[in-house]
Design goal:
single chain; two-stranded parallel sheet; alpha+beta; four-stranded antiparallel sheet; globular; 39% helix; 6 strands
């Protein structure tokens, strides 16, 4: 059983204090927001990605963890729509339940393939 690290606790606390949910407009963009900013505004994917960056210390480290498979963005259903949850170090966190948990809270559970994550992050820079 893996434990919640101090970095994971700090990242969750930061996100609870600074994150404000805002749905993407017409195009779904995945953005890793600089966790050092005062206000972090985004949707569930942005929450998941930014929490990972805050946990690991940088956007680059977050991207590397996703590519290596050390972390995953999980697709699920919530309130009739799609929703993203971060899975890292044996624990889940999302903007609906912004506390690390080793318990899956939803039904559907599909990990986004690594190439899809890369494309989604690249598209956000272009759009």
């Amino acid at each position: 059983m893996t434990h919640i690290t101090p970095a994971m606790r700090d990242a969750a606390e930061l996100m609870r204090a600074r994150f404000t949910y805002r749905r993407d407009s017409k195009i779904d963009k995945w953005v890793i927001i600089d966790p050092k900013t005062d206000k972090i505004v985004g949707d569930c994917e942005d929450f998941a990605l930014t929490t990972l960056a805050a946990t690991l210390g940088s956007k680059k480290a977050a991207k590397q963890a996703l590519w290596r498979g050390d972390a995953q963005i999980i697709y699920t259903k919530f309130n009739g729509g799609g929703h993203a949850v971060l899975f890292y170090n044996g624990h889940y966190i999302d903007n609906v339940h912004p506390y690390w948990s080793d318990t899956w809270r939803y039904g559907t559970k599909i990990a986004y393939p690594r190439p899809v994550i890369v494309v989604k992050l690249m598209l956000a820079k272009v759009l």
